[in-house]
Amino acid sequence: MLENLPIVQGDPLWALLHQFNADQRDHKIDMLVGVYRDETGQTPVMQQVQKAEQKLAAVAESKSYKMLSGNLEFNDHMAKFLLGDSERFSDQCTIQTVGGSGALRVIADFVATLSPDAVIWNTNPGYLNHRPIMEGAGLNVEPFRWQHVGGVLDIEACFEDLEQAKEGDILLLHGSCHNPSGVDPSLAQWQQFIDFCLAKKVVPFIDIAYQGFGDGPEEDAAGLRLFVEQVDFMLVAASCSKNMGLYCERTGVAMVITNDHSQHAPLRTLLERITRANYSMPPNHGAAVASLLFSDPEPWLAELSVCRERINDLRKALGNLLLEMNAPVSLQAVTRQKGMFSLLPLTPEQMTALREKHAIYGMLNGRINIAGLKQAQVSYLAKALVDVMKSEC
Ligand SMILES: Cc1ncc(COP(=O)(O)O)c(C=O)c1O
Q1: Among 320, 363, 382, 390, which has the minimal tally of Cβ within 10 Å of its Cβ?
Q2: The CATH classification of domain 10-45+309-390, taken from the options 3.50.50.60, 3.40.50.300, 2.40.128.50, 3.90.1150.10
Protein backbone atom coordinates (compact mmCIF):
# COMPACT_ATOMS: atom_id res chain seq x y z
CA MET A 1 0.00 0.00 0.00
CA LEU A 2 2.64 2.51 1.02
CA GLU A 3 4.37 2.29 -2.35
CA ASN A 4 1.43 4.33 -3.62
CA LEU A 5 2.04 7.11 -1.15
CA PRO A 6 2.22 10.34 -3.16
CA ILE A 7 4.90 12.95 -2.57
CA VAL A 8 2.73 15.80 -1.38
CA GLN A 9 3.86 19.38 -1.02
CA GLY A 10 3.70 20.66 2.56
CA ASP A 11 1.46 23.59 3.41
CA PRO A 12 3.36 26.80 2.40
CA LEU A 13 2.06 28.60 5.48
CA TRP A 14 3.65 26.16 7.93
CA ALA A 15 6.94 26.22 6.04
CA LEU A 16 7.05 30.02 6.38
CA LEU A 17 6.09 29.77 10.02
CA HIS A 18 9.07 27.49 10.69
CA GLN A 19 11.25 30.06 8.94
CA PHE A 20 9.77 32.81 11.10
CA ASN A 21 10.45 30.87 14.31
CA ALA A 22 14.06 30.30 13.29
CA ASP A 23 14.58 33.97 12.32
CA GLN A 24 16.89 35.59 14.93
CA ARG A 25 16.03 39.21 14.10
CA ASP A 26 14.34 40.94 17.06
CA HIS A 27 12.22 43.20 14.88
CA LYS A 28 10.62 40.35 12.89
CA ILE A 29 6.84 40.60 12.36
CA ASP A 30 4.53 37.57 11.89
CA MET A 31 1.60 38.45 9.65
CA LEU A 32 1.13 34.86 8.53
CA VAL A 33 -1.33 32.84 10.55
CA GLY A 34 -5.04 33.62 10.48
CA VAL A 35 -5.61 34.15 14.18
CA TYR A 36 -6.39 37.34 16.06
CA ARG A 37 -3.50 38.81 18.07
CA ASP A 38 -3.71 41.55 20.67
CA GLU A 39 -1.26 44.44 21.09
CA THR A 40 1.10 42.14 23.03
CA GLY A 41 1.13 39.60 20.20
CA GLN A 42 -0.96 37.03 22.08
CA THR A 43 -4.08 35.20 20.94
CA PRO A 44 -5.89 35.54 24.26
CA VAL A 45 -8.69 33.43 25.63
CA MET A 46 -11.59 35.87 25.92
CA GLN A 47 -12.45 36.70 29.53
CA GLN A 48 -16.06 35.70 28.98
CA VAL A 49 -14.89 32.36 27.62
CA GLN A 50 -12.77 31.81 30.73
CA LYS A 51 -15.72 32.68 32.96
CA ALA A 52 -17.97 30.31 31.03
CA GLU A 53 -15.39 27.54 31.32
CA GLN A 54 -15.18 28.02 35.07
CA LYS A 55 -18.97 27.87 35.31
CA LEU A 56 -19.08 24.69 33.25
CA ALA A 57 -16.34 23.07 35.32
CA ALA A 58 -18.22 23.90 38.54
CA VAL A 59 -21.42 22.30 37.25
CA ALA A 60 -19.54 19.31 35.78
CA GLU A 61 -22.36 18.22 33.54
CA SER A 62 -22.33 14.61 32.34
CA LYS A 63 -20.05 13.83 29.40
CA SER A 64 -22.62 11.43 28.03
CA TYR A 65 -23.25 11.60 24.27
CA LYS A 66 -25.17 14.55 22.89
CA MET A 67 -27.53 14.49 19.92
CA LEU A 68 -26.21 13.85 16.41
CA SER A 69 -27.07 17.49 15.66
CA GLY A 70 -24.82 18.49 18.57
CA ASN A 71 -25.81 21.02 21.23
CA LEU A 72 -29.35 22.06 20.35
CA GLU A 73 -29.34 25.18 22.52
CA PHE A 74 -26.16 26.34 20.77
CA ASN A 75 -27.71 25.66 17.36
CA ASP A 76 -30.69 27.88 18.22
CA HIS A 77 -28.46 30.67 19.50
CA MET A 78 -26.32 30.51 16.36
CA ALA A 79 -29.38 30.62 14.10
CA LYS A 80 -30.52 33.80 15.90
CA PHE A 81 -27.02 35.32 15.77
CA LEU A 82 -26.82 34.67 12.03
CA LEU A 83 -30.36 35.53 11.00
CA GLY A 84 -31.20 38.29 13.51
CA ASP A 85 -34.93 38.60 14.11
CA SER A 86 -35.75 37.29 10.65
CA GLU A 87 -39.25 35.96 10.06
CA ARG A 88 -37.58 32.98 8.41
CA PHE A 89 -36.19 31.59 11.64
CA SER A 90 -38.53 28.60 11.33
CA ASP A 91 -37.19 27.89 7.82
CA GLN A 92 -33.71 26.97 9.02
CA CYS A 93 -32.38 23.58 9.91
CA THR A 94 -29.10 23.91 11.80
CA ILE A 95 -26.63 21.35 13.10
CA GLN A 96 -23.49 21.87 15.15
CA THR A 97 -20.26 21.06 13.32
CA VAL A 98 -16.54 20.66 13.94
CA GLY A 99 -15.70 24.34 13.38
CA GLY A 100 -16.41 26.25 10.21
CA SER A 101 -14.32 23.77 8.20
CA GLY A 102 -16.55 20.94 9.42
CA ALA A 103 -19.60 22.95 8.37
CA LEU A 104 -18.12 23.45 4.90
CA ARG A 105 -17.44 19.73 4.54
CA VAL A 106 -20.87 18.65 5.83
CA ILE A 107 -22.56 20.99 3.35
CA ALA A 108 -20.23 19.86 0.57
CA ASP A 109 -21.20 16.23 1.30
CA PHE A 110 -24.86 17.29 1.41
CA VAL A 111 -24.57 18.90 -2.04
CA ALA A 112 -22.56 15.96 -3.40
CA THR A 113 -25.29 13.54 -2.24
CA LEU A 114 -28.20 15.49 -3.69
CA SER A 115 -26.69 17.25 -6.66
CA PRO A 116 -23.32 15.71 -7.58
CA ASP A 117 -23.05 17.62 -10.88
CA ALA A 118 -23.41 21.02 -9.23
CA VAL A 119 -20.35 23.19 -9.75
CA ILE A 120 -19.11 25.21 -6.78
CA TRP A 121 -18.26 28.74 -7.94
CA ASN A 122 -15.46 29.90 -5.73
CA THR A 123 -13.85 33.34 -5.40
CA ASN A 124 -10.34 33.70 -6.83
CA PRO A 125 -8.36 34.45 -4.76
CA GLY A 126 -10.21 32.68 -2.02
CA TYR A 127 -9.92 30.81 1.25
CA LEU A 128 -7.16 28.22 0.71
CA ASN A 129 -9.23 25.39 2.13
CA HIS A 130 -12.44 25.91 0.14
CA ARG A 131 -11.28 24.03 -2.93
CA PRO A 132 -9.77 21.02 -1.08
CA ILE A 133 -12.88 20.67 1.07
CA MET A 134 -15.26 20.84 -1.89
CA GLU A 135 -13.11 18.56 -4.03
CA GLY A 136 -12.71 16.21 -1.07
CA ALA A 137 -16.47 15.72 -1.24
CA GLY A 138 -16.16 14.96 -4.97
CA LEU A 139 -17.48 18.29 -6.23
CA ASN A 140 -16.15 20.34 -9.13
CA VAL A 141 -14.92 23.82 -8.33
CA GLU A 142 -14.65 26.74 -10.74
CA PRO A 143 -13.07 30.08 -9.88
CA PHE A 144 -14.45 33.56 -10.45
CA ARG A 145 -12.36 36.70 -10.06
CA TRP A 146 -12.58 38.56 -6.76
CA GLN A 147 -10.64 41.77 -7.24
CA HIS A 148 -11.10 45.42 -6.42
CA VAL A 149 -10.87 48.72 -8.17
CA GLY A 150 -9.76 51.39 -5.69
CA GLY A 151 -10.94 49.21 -2.81
CA VAL A 152 -14.40 48.49 -4.30
CA LEU A 153 -15.26 44.95 -5.45
CA ASP A 154 -15.06 44.68 -9.24
CA ILE A 155 -18.43 43.01 -9.65
CA GLU A 156 -18.29 43.20 -13.44
CA ALA A 157 -15.34 40.79 -13.34
CA CYS A 158 -17.32 38.47 -11.02
CA PHE A 159 -20.28 38.32 -13.39
CA GLU A 160 -18.13 37.94 -16.48
CA ASP A 161 -16.69 34.75 -14.95
CA LEU A 162 -20.01 33.60 -13.52
CA GLU A 163 -21.58 33.83 -16.96
CA GLN A 164 -21.11 30.07 -17.38
CA ALA A 165 -22.87 29.11 -14.14
CA LYS A 166 -25.85 26.87 -14.79
CA GLU A 167 -29.07 26.14 -12.94
CA GLY A 168 -28.40 24.20 -9.75
CA ASP A 169 -24.78 25.34 -9.41
CA ILE A 170 -23.62 26.77 -6.08
CA LEU A 171 -22.31 30.30 -5.53
CA LEU A 172 -19.93 30.22 -2.55
CA LEU A 173 -19.59 33.69 -1.00
CA HIS A 174 -17.81 34.88 2.15
CA GLY A 175 -20.31 36.46 4.56
CA SER A 176 -17.87 39.19 5.59
CA CYS A 177 -14.16 39.97 5.83
CA HIS A 178 -13.23 38.06 2.68
CA ASN A 179 -10.22 35.80 3.17
CA PRO A 180 -7.65 36.68 1.84
CA SER A 181 -8.53 40.02 0.22
CA GLY A 182 -10.56 41.86 2.88
CA VAL A 183 -12.74 43.07 -0.02
CA ASP A 184 -16.46 42.78 0.79
CA PRO A 185 -19.43 43.57 -1.46
CA SER A 186 -21.44 46.72 -0.75
CA LEU A 187 -25.11 46.11 0.09
CA ALA A 188 -26.00 47.06 -3.48
CA GLN A 189 -23.52 44.46 -4.75
CA TRP A 190 -24.99 41.82 -2.42
CA GLN A 191 -28.31 42.60 -4.08
CA GLN A 192 -26.70 42.02 -7.49
CA PHE A 193 -25.54 38.57 -6.34
CA ILE A 194 -29.09 37.83 -5.14
CA ASP A 195 -30.56 38.93 -8.48
CA PHE A 196 -28.01 36.72 -10.22
CA CYS A 197 -28.91 33.67 -8.10
CA LEU A 198 -32.63 34.22 -8.62
CA ALA A 199 -32.29 34.75 -12.38
CA LYS A 200 -29.95 31.79 -12.94
CA LYS A 201 -31.47 29.50 -10.28
CA VAL A 202 -28.06 29.23 -8.66
CA VAL A 203 -27.98 28.22 -4.97
CA PRO A 204 -26.25 30.65 -2.60
CA PHE A 205 -23.84 29.17 -0.06
CA ILE A 206 -22.50 31.66 2.46
CA ASP A 207 -19.43 30.91 4.53
CA ILE A 208 -19.35 33.32 7.47
CA ALA A 209 -16.25 32.88 9.62
CA TYR A 210 -15.67 36.49 10.77
CA GLN A 211 -19.04 37.83 11.95
CA GLY A 212 -18.16 40.78 14.18
CA PHE A 213 -14.64 41.32 12.85
CA GLY A 214 -15.57 43.83 10.12
CA ASP A 215 -18.12 46.52 11.03
CA GLY A 216 -20.04 44.67 13.78
CA PRO A 217 -22.03 41.44 14.23
CA GLU A 218 -25.22 42.86 12.71
CA GLU A 219 -23.52 44.75 9.89
CA ASP A 220 -21.35 41.76 8.97
CA ALA A 221 -24.44 39.57 8.56
CA ALA A 222 -26.28 42.14 6.40
CA GLY A 223 -25.47 40.44 3.08
CA LEU A 224 -26.45 37.02 4.38
CA ARG A 225 -29.71 38.42 5.80
CA LEU A 226 -30.54 40.15 2.51
CA PHE A 227 -30.21 36.76 0.82
CA VAL A 228 -32.39 35.13 3.49
CA GLU A 229 -35.15 37.69 2.85
CA GLN A 230 -35.31 36.89 -0.85
CA VAL A 231 -34.13 33.36 -1.59
CA ASP A 232 -36.19 30.26 -0.74
CA PHE A 233 -33.31 27.81 -0.49
CA MET A 234 -29.76 28.50 0.64
CA LEU A 235 -26.81 27.07 2.56
CA VAL A 236 -24.72 28.58 5.35
CA ALA A 237 -21.50 27.54 7.09
CA ALA A 238 -20.52 29.50 10.21
CA SER A 239 -17.61 29.45 12.63
CA CYS A 240 -17.07 30.62 16.24
CA SER A 241 -13.29 30.25 15.90
CA LYS A 242 -12.55 33.95 15.45
CA ASN A 243 -15.42 35.89 17.02
CA MET A 244 -15.28 33.86 20.25
CA GLY A 245 -11.63 32.90 19.98
CA LEU A 246 -12.65 29.22 20.21
CA TYR A 247 -10.26 28.10 17.46
CA CYS A 248 -9.11 24.73 18.83
CA GLU A 249 -12.48 23.95 20.38
CA ARG A 250 -13.78 23.43 16.84
CA THR A 251 -17.15 25.15 17.10
CA GLY A 252 -19.44 25.99 14.19
CA VAL A 253 -22.72 25.24 12.47
CA ALA A 254 -24.04 24.12 9.10
CA MET A 255 -27.42 25.55 8.18
CA VAL A 256 -29.86 24.75 5.41
CA ILE A 257 -32.69 27.19 4.83
CA THR A 258 -35.79 26.19 2.93
CA ASN A 259 -39.36 27.41 3.13
CA ASP A 260 -40.61 23.89 2.32
CA HIS A 261 -41.07 22.58 5.85
CA SER A 262 -41.99 19.11 4.63
CA GLN A 263 -38.30 18.78 3.72
CA HIS A 264 -36.96 19.70 7.16
CA ALA A 265 -37.12 16.22 8.73
CA PRO A 266 -35.49 14.38 5.78
CA LEU A 267 -32.82 17.01 5.32
CA ARG A 268 -31.91 16.93 9.01
CA THR A 269 -31.72 13.14 8.77
CA LEU A 270 -29.37 13.46 5.79
CA LEU A 271 -27.16 16.00 7.58
CA GLU A 272 -26.98 13.69 10.60
CA ARG A 273 -26.22 10.69 8.42
CA ILE A 274 -23.30 12.62 6.94
CA THR A 275 -21.84 13.55 10.32
CA ARG A 276 -22.52 10.07 11.72
CA ALA A 277 -20.47 8.53 8.92
CA ASN A 278 -17.61 10.98 9.57
CA TYR A 279 -17.23 11.69 13.27
CA SER A 280 -20.61 10.77 14.74
CA MET A 281 -21.14 14.02 16.60
CA PRO A 282 -19.20 17.21 17.28
CA PRO A 283 -17.37 17.94 20.56
CA ASN A 284 -19.56 19.76 23.07
CA HIS A 285 -17.18 21.99 25.02
CA GLY A 286 -16.97 24.95 22.60
CA ALA A 287 -20.71 24.86 21.95
CA ALA A 288 -21.46 24.81 25.69
CA VAL A 289 -19.17 27.81 26.19
CA ALA A 290 -20.72 29.64 23.24
CA SER A 291 -24.23 29.00 24.61
CA LEU A 292 -23.28 30.71 27.85
CA LEU A 293 -21.86 33.67 25.95
CA PHE A 294 -25.04 33.96 23.90
CA SER A 295 -27.24 33.79 27.01
CA ASP A 296 -25.76 37.12 28.20
CA PRO A 297 -24.11 38.49 25.06
CA GLU A 298 -23.20 42.08 25.99
CA PRO A 299 -19.90 41.41 27.84
CA TRP A 300 -18.72 39.09 25.05
CA LEU A 301 -19.79 41.55 22.32
CA ALA A 302 -17.83 44.26 24.15
CA GLU A 303 -14.70 42.07 24.06
CA LEU A 304 -15.31 41.33 20.41
CA SER A 305 -15.58 45.05 19.65
CA VAL A 306 -12.14 45.61 21.23
CA CYS A 307 -10.67 43.10 18.71
CA ARG A 308 -12.51 44.71 15.82
CA GLU A 309 -11.51 48.25 16.79
CA ARG A 310 -7.87 47.25 17.19
CA ILE A 311 -7.80 45.87 13.64
CA ASN A 312 -9.65 48.87 12.24
CA ASP A 313 -7.31 51.29 14.06
CA LEU A 314 -4.29 49.47 12.62
CA ARG A 315 -5.78 49.70 9.14
CA LYS A 316 -6.44 53.42 9.57
CA ALA A 317 -2.95 54.13 10.92
CA LEU A 318 -1.31 52.16 8.10
CA GLY A 319 -3.52 53.78 5.45
CA ASN A 320 -2.82 57.31 6.77
CA LEU A 321 0.92 56.73 6.73
CA LEU A 322 0.82 55.27 3.22
CA LEU A 323 -1.12 58.31 2.08
CA GLU A 324 1.41 60.67 3.68
CA MET A 325 4.20 58.74 1.98
CA ASN A 326 2.47 58.96 -1.38
CA ALA A 327 2.41 55.17 -1.64
CA PRO A 328 0.70 53.56 -4.67
CA VAL A 329 -3.12 53.83 -4.45
CA SER A 330 -3.42 50.04 -4.66
CA LEU A 331 -1.61 49.83 -1.30
CA GLN A 332 -3.75 52.51 0.31
CA ALA A 333 -6.87 50.37 -0.29
CA VAL A 334 -5.91 48.60 2.94
CA THR A 335 -8.08 51.13 4.86
CA ARG A 336 -11.24 50.12 2.97
CA GLN A 337 -10.74 46.40 3.51
CA LYS A 338 -12.42 44.47 6.30
CA GLY A 339 -11.35 41.94 8.88
CA MET A 340 -7.95 40.47 9.59
CA PHE A 341 -6.71 39.94 6.06
CA SER A 342 -5.50 42.06 3.20
CA LEU A 343 -3.97 40.99 -0.04
CA LEU A 344 -1.01 43.24 -0.79
CA PRO A 345 -0.52 44.15 -4.45
CA LEU A 346 2.99 42.65 -4.28
CA THR A 347 4.61 39.96 -6.40
CA PRO A 348 5.97 36.79 -4.73
CA GLU A 349 9.45 38.28 -5.25
CA GLN A 350 8.44 41.47 -3.43
CA MET A 351 6.91 39.40 -0.61
CA THR A 352 10.21 37.52 -0.39
CA ALA A 353 12.09 40.83 -0.26
CA LEU A 354 9.76 41.97 2.52
CA ARG A 355 10.74 38.87 4.45
CA GLU A 356 14.46 38.77 3.68
CA LYS A 357 15.24 42.47 3.85
CA HIS A 358 12.74 43.66 6.46
CA ALA A 359 11.86 40.50 8.48
CA ILE A 360 8.16 40.98 7.72
CA TYR A 361 6.44 37.65 7.08
CA GLY A 362 3.35 37.41 4.87
CA MET A 363 2.18 34.74 2.43
CA LEU A 364 3.82 34.68 -1.00
CA ASN A 365 0.48 35.53 -2.64
CA GLY A 366 0.52 38.83 -0.72
CA ARG A 367 -1.84 37.86 2.12
CA ILE A 368 -1.09 39.52 5.43
CA ASN A 369 -2.87 39.27 8.76
CA ILE A 370 -3.27 42.85 9.98
CA ALA A 371 -3.87 41.58 13.53
CA GLY A 372 -0.26 40.32 13.56
CA LEU A 373 0.86 43.95 13.73
CA LYS A 374 1.42 46.19 16.78
CA GLN A 375 0.75 49.95 16.65
CA ALA A 376 4.47 50.59 17.23
CA GLN A 377 5.32 48.57 14.07
CA VAL A 378 2.96 50.36 11.66
CA SER A 379 5.48 52.92 10.50
CA TYR A 380 8.18 50.27 9.98
CA LEU A 381 5.75 48.22 7.87
CA ALA A 382 4.64 51.23 5.80
CA LYS A 383 8.27 52.16 4.99
CA ALA A 384 9.13 48.55 4.14
CA LEU A 385 6.14 48.24 1.81
CA VAL A 386 7.04 51.40 -0.06
CA ASP A 387 10.65 50.20 -0.24
CA VAL A 388 9.85 46.79 -1.78
CA MET A 389 7.31 48.29 -4.16
CA LYS A 390 9.98 50.67 -5.45
CA SER A 391 12.44 47.85 -6.00
CA GLU A 392 12.74 46.11 -9.35
CA CYS A 393 12.00 42.56 -8.22
C1 LIG B 1 -13.36 31.95 5.03
C2 LIG B 1 -13.15 30.91 6.07
N3 LIG B 1 -14.03 29.91 6.19
C4 LIG B 1 -13.89 28.95 7.11
C5 LIG B 1 -12.80 28.93 7.95
C6 LIG B 1 -12.63 27.77 8.90
O7 LIG B 1 -12.91 28.09 10.19
P8 LIG B 1 -12.62 27.04 11.36
O9 LIG B 1 -11.28 27.37 11.89
O10 LIG B 1 -13.72 27.29 12.33
O11 LIG B 1 -12.67 25.68 10.80
C12 LIG B 1 -11.84 29.95 7.86
C13 LIG B 1 -10.69 29.94 8.75
O14 LIG B 1 -9.69 30.55 8.55
C15 LIG B 1 -12.02 30.96 6.89
O16 LIG B 1 -11.14 31.94 6.74
Answers
A1: 390
A2: 3.90.1150.10
